Amino acid sequence: EFGWRGSTDSPLTGITRNPWRTDTTPGGSSGGAVAAVAAGLGPFALGTDGGGSIRIPAAFTGTVGLKAHYGRVPAWPLSPMGNVAHIGSQTRTVADCARLLEVIARPDSRDWTALPPETREWSAVAAAGRHEGASGLRIGFSPRLGYVKWVDPRIERALEAAAKRFAELGATVDDADPGFADCSHAFRVHWFSSARHLLHRLPEDKFAQLDPGLREVVDYASRYTITDWLDAQAERGQVAMAMGRFAQDYDLLLTPATAVLPFEVGRVMPEPPAGVEVGMANDWTWWTPFSYPFNLTQQPAIVLPCGFSDDGLPIALQLVAPNFREDLCLRAAAAYEAATDWHKRRPPLGV
What pLDDT does residue 312 have? Predict the structure, then answer.
């Protein structure tokens, strides 16, 4: 409901399942759309990513998800979640992702936050990556962003292998953290406050019908003050400035897409491992630490498969580019995809 979490089920619509293993979630919030793409019901879907809602489902279903730079894809009406909500592509290949971006990024004068129209052909950028590799690209590899406490070891191993593959494709790959601190509190203040603004005026009988976890988020946000909001915006600026400095040395940041593998359906989060503190019962930010920072910074980011667990669950990497540089995401992703076979696998439940 209202894209509030990273898995897809609700009292209204029931449970959406992962075609790779139906006892696991396809992620969220765009889980239904991407489950259909992964299962072969269609070549693409659209998603709106306010904290990972394109990239998390892509990671959990072995598909490609591009969160375009904020404003690249015009929107109307604008998201009630403010300027962290990005529209982008969900596809099975990087080439299809680029083609879809060419269509959806066309101008719409109703969106006053939209970027100027881009004249380059995104498909040509992806094609160049497939044919030319990653030669000359500078990639900073950060498996924990410098502060993430826990990542599934299977994901860490897959990311180490992916970093080596990028080096084999001609990129310069260094271990490099982006230089900002944990920004989960700033994100929660922004997102939870937006949810409260959207929903707190609902009549009591309607509010009672919402997902219990979403009601908790709305109630939790009542404690925030205008000072909390302004502090969160200041922290957001610090994260963005850190990424600006990072871009002086690197073309791309390589991270895991998520800290966990797809987990059991019907849950907001898996059981937290030892040492991971969860601030509230339905706080999903601890297992999505690689997603929401780049909603705060508004940068383009792409997720694509880089492996599978022994029990057949997808593992994914994320590439984050400087402001306005979707071309770098698409080029590097296409180069990696052309050199691997992960994207060619199909789930057991599909057409």
Answer: 96
Among the CATH numbers 3.90.1300.10, 3.30.43.10, 3.10.20.120, 3.90.950.10, which is that of 9-344? 3.90.1300.10
Give the DSSP letter string of 100-117. Answer: HHHHHTS--TT-TTPPPP
Give counts: helices (H), strands (E), the chain: 11, 10
Q: How far is CA 7 from CA 53, 297, 306, in A?
A: 9, 23, 21
Residue 324 and residue 69 in contact, taking contact as beta carbons nearer than 8 Å: yes
pLDDT in tens, 283-293: 788 899 999 99
CA 185 and chain centroid, separation: 18
Domain ranges of the chain: 9-344
Distance in angstroms (rounded) separating the CA atoms of residues 183 and 181 = 6
Global pTM value: 0.94
Cβ atoms of 53 and 25 closer than 8 Å? no
